[in-house]
Amino acid sequence: MKLVVVGGGAAGMSCAARARRLDEAAEITVLEKTDYVSYASCGLPYFVGGEIAEEQSLLVQTPASLRASLNLDVRIRHCVTALDRAARRLTVATPDGDIAIDYDALVLAPGAEPLRPPLPGLDSPRVQTLRTVPEARALREQATGGAARAVVLGAGFIGLEAAEALARRGLAVTVVELAPHVLPPLEEELAALVTAELTRLGIQVVAGVAATGVEPGAAADTVTLADGRRLPADLILLSVGVRPDTAPFIAAGLKAERGALVVDAHGRTSDPAIWAAGDGVLSRDAVTGALRPIPLAGPANRNGRLVADAILRPATARPLPAGLGTAIVRVGDLTVALTGANRASLAAAGLECHTLHLHPAHHAGYFPGAQPLHVVVHVDATGTLLGAQVVGGPGADRRVDVLATAIRAGWSVADLIDLDLCYSPPYGSAKDPVTMVGLVGDNVVNGQLTLWYAQDVDAVLNDCLLLDVRSPAEFAAGHLPGALNIPHTELRDRLDEVTAAAAGRPVRTMCGVGLRSYIAHLILVAAGFDSASLSGGAETLHATLAARGRSDLLVTESN
């Protein structure tokens, strides 16, 4: 068999390596248009910032090492320009001119390329992207070669990693994001925590504002914004997203949507001799069912392997899994991790959910060094887990990994209660944060706990009695206007005050993180009140108000 793989990144090299392990006799050729294959693209921002010192550390394999170990014919600087499906032939531009390469089976793993919006001035030499080793090298040279001011256009994962890397180099960095907040897939109440951490790092954040262009200058360029602001920059990083690098294959008639190739359950395209994997392919979302590219290295590696199985061992090949989009990024001292659906994608799919907010410590609170984890989990009416996000310090990664596993398994939130998770004071709590998600979620699903949300604060203030059950000192430090303060330990003896203040209205409780208001809610329900408890308490409320620029809604009292 003549197997040709287009693309030497995660999906392509995973496919080629697996194909060799399945068939020693196959003729396997990999075509890569850049100078590098099997490089650590996820490490590029850390190379720019100096945490990865040597460029060589980014190079996992070379054409020579792949030839020696796997007998793969890996050809760099080979760019596919045309596909003749009837003849099963590729036209390839090489340094020595165009050549034709025939195939029996073809795997397309061309990846994606940086999105370049139609803004004036993006052709300035001060504007860079960050997808390849040469781009990382050029950005590092700029950052260490006298640049003092940087503007990063786009506050996604790569944009924030690069912003932190440039700040580490001593540059004054401004991040501009068109969406209302940084890391758009993140829920707004968690994104507010990330914005605060970026500010602590000295990085200025401009969100909810479009860049309108770049004005080149002799000494520096100027990034212009839709609100009239002008940002001088010695270095500009364009990181507003990617698009599938699939043009010649779509031109050949392969079925595609929004530039991404459509494949079946085993990665086969609309042509029976052609498969595809990686960033240029539509994946089905495991929660919402929506079709979308998932440009992540983990799924690309795994799916490349499965495509090789489908070609060479079709009888036993497993289908490509639907994607959860599990991802993680470091921002300063914070870890940001997420999996599954967020509120926006659930709403777009017409799926209703309960949202749980928790703020547990990452290990036992009595053990020195405990840090909070800010957890958001979505479940449906039956308790099925739909998505999870965690922002915090140590331990955020492993909690999301457990939740991603549970979502993949189709578990309900109550199943989390029964997990045997390791516990010792330096590592966790007897009730692990994941266990707490199960306990709170089960209470919500079975009706023992009714939640209200910080996003609905205006309606609550207009239509309900807000009962703040924190201590008087906490209340004085910052509370919502019109709230009645009765500590939860006094509530049973002061229900007559609640009755008088409510005057027949529903009662909505709140505390610091949700536990005391839950206890108060149970007391109120037992007394016949229409009650609900604020999900995540004041911790989530403050973050939500900050995200919406409404922190001034809080009232403080001087003693």
The number of domains:
4
Helix content range of the residues, please? 25-40%
Unreliable residue stretches: none
Give the overall shape, derived from the CA principal axes.
globular
Average pLDDT metric:
96
Strands, total number: 32
Largest sheet features: 5 strands, parallel
Give me the side-by-side strand order of the main sheet. 3-2-1-7-20
Please give the CATH class of the largest domain: Alpha Beta
Quote the beta fraction.
15-25%
- Distance between the first and last residues' Cα: 82 Å
Q: How is this structure best described in words?
A:
The chain has 559 residues and is α/β, with parallel strands linked by helices. The longest helix is centred in the middle third of the chain and has 16 residues, at 297-312.
Layout of helices and strands, plus pairs?
Elements: E1 2-6, H1 10-22, E2 27-32, H2 44-49, H3 63-70, E3 73-76, E4 79-84, E5 89-94, E6 97-102, E7 105-108, E8 112-114, E9 127-128, H4 133-144, E10 149-153, H5 157-168, E11 172-177, H6 188-200, E12 204-207, E13 211-215, E14 221-225, E15 230-233, E16 235-238, E17 242-244, H7 247-251, E18 256-257, E19 260-261, E20 274-276, E21 283-284, E22 291-292, H8 297-312, E23 327-331, E24 334-340, H9 343-348, E25 354-358, E26 373-379, E27 385-392, H10 396-408, H11 433-445, E28 451-452, H12 457-463, E29 465-468, H13 472-477, E30 484-485, H14 495-502, E31 507-510, H15 515-526, E32 531-534, H16 537-547
Parallel strand pairs: 1-2, 1-7, 2-3, 7-20, 9-16, 10-11, 10-16, 11-12, 28-32, 29-30, 29-31, 31-32
Antiparallel strand pairs: 4-5, 5-6, 8-17, 13-14, 14-15, 18-19, 21-22, 23-24, 24-27, 25-26, 26-27
